[in-house]
Design goal:
EC number: 2.8.2.-
Mean pLDDT: 96
Main location: cytoplasm
Bound molecules: adenosine-3'-5'-diphosphate
Number of strands: 6
Radius of gyration: 18 Å
Structural class: alpha/beta
CATH superfamily: P-loop containing nucleotide triphosphate hydrolases
Distance between the termini: 35 Å
Keywords: Catecholamine metabolism, Cytoplasm, Transferase
Low-confidence stretches: none
CATH class: Alpha Beta
Number of helices: 14
Helix content: 40-55%
GO biological process, one term: catecholamine metabolic process
GO cellular component, one term: cytoplasm
Length: 286
């Protein structure tokens, strides 16, 4: 246990409501199948969006799973305790999500033929989204002021550690053509185009009709009103919608409404320094 009430796992802070030593061990020993698909994200980068998209892409647009199974059981988190309870009900090809850095993924991932979609989001928007999420998610630490929360984020004293470490781990894997990189902004800008990329990567090559159907059901508006995805099934003691909504704004560029010029300079300088010498470049101006 860390001093904050989160558990500490390989240096990462995790909320004990969903993560236990048993669930983390279960994740380590998870037997990845060749047909498995993982959507990996740093928190607040589009995880729940992928929990809607993946079943639809994998099953050709059949709406049954997204309308009958809550997102956390439909496409469970690899590292959370629900996985052990639902794993036997997952239908092949299985879709999972994870916030783990690459080095904490189960060893069976690298020996399998499973595919990974790494979804990333402009960190300036991500820190804003995370700040509001910490206000409404009662199982997370109070974020304090936005300025305090930004410092915590830059120092990695937040869930799943430093964003830059997460990026570095996933940009430098040996997965070759088994990993696809996708941005939140790309999905926002042209969801059908992003869905075509996902569909082709997963070998589905769906018709335009199927792509348009999936896009319609994965819009911000559609997901916000889907009770199986909008967390309205979660009691208020865990998620308080009076404080902020999980489906808050779903836009790019909200950081401009939150960052002062001093905060922007600090943020950019830390991120640039952390990524110095890396061979990849960020898809956003920083
Ligand atoms: P905001 O807080 O900026 O609105 P995660 O699922 O990784 O926790 O990410 C949550 C963020 O994704 C929230 O961002 C949420 O609104 C946004 N999001 C989820 N589904 C979306 C969709 N269909 N379209 C746009 N944004 C979406």
């Amino acid at each position: 246990m860390s001093s904050s009430g989160y558990i500490r796992y390989h240096g990462l802070l995790l909320p004990p409501i969903a993560h236990t030593m048993d669930s983390l061990e279960f994740a380590q020993n998870f037997a990845v199948e060749d047909s498995d698909v993982f959507a990996v994200t740093y928190p607040k980068s589009g995880t729940i969006w992928m929990q809607e998209i993946l079943p639809l892409v994998l099953n050709g647009g059949d709406l049954t799973p997204i309308h009958t199974i809550p997102n956390w059981d439909r496409v469970p988190w690899l590292e959370e305790s629900r996985l052990a309870l639902v794993v036997d009900q997952l239908v092949s090809p299985r879709a999972l999500v994870s916030h783990f850095p690459y080095n904490l993924m189960p060893p069976s991932l690298s020996t399998s033929k499973a595919k990974v979609i790494y979804v990333m989001r402009n960190p300036k928007d991500l820190v804003v989204s995370s700040y509001y999420f910490h206000q409404m998610a009662e199982f997370l630490e109070d974020p304090g002021t936005f300025d305090e929360f930004m410092d915590k984020f830059l120092e990695g004293r937040v869930l799943f550690g430093k964003w830059t470490d997460h990026m570095k781990s996933w940009m430098n894997t040996e997965l070759g053509d088994r990993i696809m990189y996708l941005t939140f902004e790309e999905m926002l800008q042209d969801l059908p185009a992003a869905l075509r990329r996902i569909s082709n990567f997963l070998g589905r090559n769906h018709s335009e009709e199927v792509i348009q159907k999936i896009a319609e059901h994965c819009s911000f508006k559609a997901m916000k009103s889907n009770t199986m995805s909008n967390f309205s099934l979660v009691p208020k003691v865990y998620m308080d919608n009076d404080k902020s909504h999980f489906f808050r704004k779903g836009i790019a560029g909200d950081w401009e409404n939150h960052f002062s010029s001093e905060q922007l300079a600090r943020f950019k300088s830390v991120i640039r320094k952390e990524l110095e010498g890396e061979s990849f470049s960020l898809p956003w101006s920083m």
